[in-house]
Structure formats: structure tokens, C-alpha cells
Amino acid sequence: MPSMQRNDPRQYDDLAAEWWRPDGPFALLQWLAAARAALIPPADAPGRVLIDAGCGGGLLAPYVRDKGYQHIGVDLGRAGLAQAAPHGMTPLNGDVTALPLASRSADVVVAGEILEHVTDLPATVAELCRVLRPGGLMVLDTVNDTRLARLITVTLGERFGVVPAGLHDPALFVSPDRLVTEFTRHGVNLTVRGVRPGLVGLFRWLVLRQAVTGRIVPTFSTAVLYQATGRRHAG
Known about the structure:
- It is a single chain.
- By secondary structure, the protein is an alpha/beta fold.
- It has one domain (about 10-230): Rossmann fold, CATH 3.40.50.150.
- The chain has eight helices and eight strands.
- Helix 4 links the parallel strand 2 (about 70-75) and strand 3 (about 90-95).
- The termini are far apart.
């Protein structure tokens, strides 16, 4: 059987059992999910909807469970959605370039660690903005398109087991400037900040191979990882 190409989404089906292991290959994604949730305020009224685009195994679910949203997770991978469903999220099989959801149906749209995987960034951004209501909140995090990000995420990350081999195609990494431009076209002005893993937690997980609850913290540089938030203009 031929090996999969980089960024083949079927790899996540093969790794579906790893989503929730605290000492597994997706531990860093669990930390990122917690940091992402910290950017989402509690729902201000009953019936508010949060769409989690590219939700994978549903790692965001525990961190938004008590915020009062109907949490809908959309992903291509059925195996990941099966992992997500028991955690209080409504799973929906679909493509982020053609979300199976009504326009302006979401009060919050989240795109966590997915934008560095899409092969059609303009179409993905257009869809994320289409389903967000005017005044609604966009929350995202992704990997920057820099030599340092490629070195850490692909070259070193894969060599030392931070990232499963082959999950990323560095040609798809996206710079903050490009992302801001794409979202501005659709009426969402993003505010960007750099983030990184806390060093103590990273050492305990990566070197000591311990199951830890690590943290993602703000940093001055967006050179590797960054978060962004913005609201869709009214109208």
C-alpha cells in the first residue's frame, strides 16, 4: 500500500484513538484548545451557536461546555467525530470549504489548527465568514509561514515526536498578513498575537514523557504559532 502524501486527512483516521491521550501525539492540541476557549466569552443569551470548524476529535468541547453554546463540530474525518460526540458536541461531517450550515447561523466560529491544512484558503475563509452572523466572533489559531515555523513544526517536530510525521505540508502554512487580508475581504478585522507552549509543561511532556496539563501562553513573536480574533461587521 503506497504511503500517504503530506497533509492527507486520512492520517487523522489512523490516529483517531490518540486524540484524548494526555501523553499522546495530540497533547499540544489539547493545550491549544484550552487557550482557544479562553478567547470565547460565555453566551449572552440562550440558543447561541458555536461552530467548531475542523474540530477533529472535539478537543474544544470540555472547555466550552459551561459557556452556554450549542456546540457544533464540523470535520471531514468520521473517526475523529466519533471521538468527539461523547464530549457534548454535535458532530457534523463536512468540508470547511463548503460548510453544511446556513449563512449567518453562528454566534461564534472557531478554526483551531485547521487553516495550515486547507488547500484552498480563500474558499475556507469565505465559508467561515459566511456562517458567522454580523457582530459574531471569529476565533482561530494556526502556524505561520516562516522558516522558523517549518523548522520547529516539521523538521524538528517530526524528528522528536512533537508532531506525527507527515501531518503538515509546510507549503500550506499561512502568514498573519495574508490571513488578515483574506478575512478583511469578508468583513472580519482580525487582531493577532503570538503564542507558544509553556516551557515547563513542554519539557515534562516532550522530554520526560509525562501526561501533563500544559499551557499555551502569549509571546511577543508570531513567528511560529499565533492566535487571532475578530468580529464580523454589521450589515
